[in-house]
Amino acid sequence: MACFTAENMGDAVLVRVYGRKTELIVDRANELRNFQVLQDHSCAPSLYCTFENGYCYEFMPGKALGPEHIRQPNIFRLVAHEMAKMHRIHTNGSLPKPCLWHRLHKYFNIVKTEFPRKASNSGLHQDVHIPSLEVLEEEIRWMKEHLSQLRSPIVFCHNDLLSKNIIYNKAEGHVRFIDYEYTGYNYQAYDIGNHFNEFAGLNEVDYSLYPSKEIQLQWLRHYLQAYKNLGQEDLGGGSKSSGESGAVSEEELESLYVQVNQFALASHFLWACWGLIQAQFSTIDFNFARYADIRFKQYFKAKPAVTSFKTSK
Questions:
Q1: How confident is the model at residue 120 (pLDDT cuts 50, 70, 90)?
Q2: Between 83 and 54, where is the model more confident?
Q3: Which end of the chain is more exposed for a tag (fewer CB within 10 A), N or C?
Q4: Can you list the domains of the chain with their CATH numbers?
Q5: How far apart are CA 224 and CA 220, in angstroms?
């Protein structure tokens, strides 16, 4: 919610109020800590104050994007650069653990508690058919074993980069990310794969809009160039020639492409579990159970294809 008195919204501030039962799936203390980390690294607006069920922060002028925008090369180049900037936030010497597995187990345990049932073909919700809890539990075990072996770097991630969480300021020629509920250290490839899944949209999900390999490689090249350049700046590597700066090999590009598409599976699974929890508790007028059904179906549809990809040695 925006509060302002000037017609041009020059004095606007934003107020965020937490939704019902969202504390089940969001660590609010962690959200605020991560907000401040992002603010310290110029990746977030100013945080003005907090209160028991929300906080107040700086308004960022610009346009919240839609799925049709993030497919445009002039936009996705900016998104790739901003994500690389976030991913370069340091850990201050600590060795962070990915939040993916803790979050996935947490959500799944809530699903098991809220939707107890025997393994059968019956659905968790009317007209929505979800695989049995036993099948889902086995898939989590498989993902943890398989994806952990891909050696994707652990970086500071947004973890929820849907199009509406990207603000495009055309006048200044940049994008900024908002909504930090799910931020935290995670696999680099997960954050990118999760964003690629969002090309399909939210209200009318269409996975034919998932980016083609050609589009992905363009996006990933912009990302890797920015990620490398930012790393050189961190190390004081300004002496490198412009020809060497940010050079990306075909091998590392292909390797990241494989990792991203396999971690996109975990994104489907996590948001499907999230959807089931929201279906139980949220007061928002949205068919969360149907959304969960769509994400589970896409997970099982995509799994055979993407797990056949091989990383370069």
A1: very low
A2: 83
A3: C
A4: 61-306 (3.90.1200.10)
A5: 6
